[in-house]
Specification:
The protein is mainly beta. The protein has one domain. It contains one helix and 17 strands. It has one helix spanning 2-17, and strands at residues 24-36, 41-52, 57-72, 75-88, 91-94, 99-103, 108-118, 121-138, 142-155, 158-175, 180-185, 190-199, 202-215, 222-233, 239-252, 257-268, 278-290. The two termini are 26 Å apart.
Amino acid sequence: MKRLFFALVALTSALAASAQASDDFGVWGEFSIEKALTMRWDLGLETHFRTQDNSTCLDRWGVGVNAAYRVHKYLKLAAGIELLNAYTPKKYKTWKNAGWDVDADDGIATRRTGYNETNAYFTPKFRFKFDIISSVKIAKWVRIGIRERYRFARVGSVNALRVKYRKTDTYTATDLNDWQWELTDEGEWTADHSENKEEEAYSNHQLRSRLKVSLDRKRLPWHPYISGELFNNLSESMELYRIRTHVGCEYDINKHHAVSLAYVLTFNKEDDGEGFGERFHATSISYSIKY
């Protein structure tokens, strides 16, 4: 069974290596602890972090509490809240009013260009989730599970410093008949203006539907699995905006402790709303304790 674990590591590395240059990559880590209060009630605590920008900076970190109630052997209800701190890296935006000022009589032209730089900032988030979970075992070794999750999120407002940089380049005409110009004086970037830009608070509602197939043989500590999940924005008429897949393996260290390793590939809808060309790769590692 150790071969299975190393095979998964090799598969994860190979899939990550095949990522396109425009794709992003991150590392996800999670730790959770769960306590059975009764035969039907469970109470849990979890914390997690994620990185982005090819794992060079933090994406978010958070903590949460949750409770689950087993209605039936094949049905469980769960609910929880999370407090997150999401990181937005420094952003750059090209100045739209860039242009030329030409004096054909003197053969002189100036070109003014610029960009706006918004500093990195953290945004507080509050989330509530409600899950309906069902699973069934077939052929004594395969478990099929489905999960429907409703999630409400409230994103807090934040002030971010934005600085406007501008520069002016001077050109001299070398041939006015053919309208040819030569750069004779390159300007320097200067901070033209700075201001605090407010990112307003907002809320959204989401429905996430997941299907998971795993190996679940008795007395076997290794549980390879594959899953697919659809993200629908309830605030935008059930718009499908994200698709996420997992290929991983869970390992039961003992009766109470387990570890999981997975490769995650996420397809996000592009800004123009056409297709799911924006891809995010992640290596997910989690550790859980159950009593």
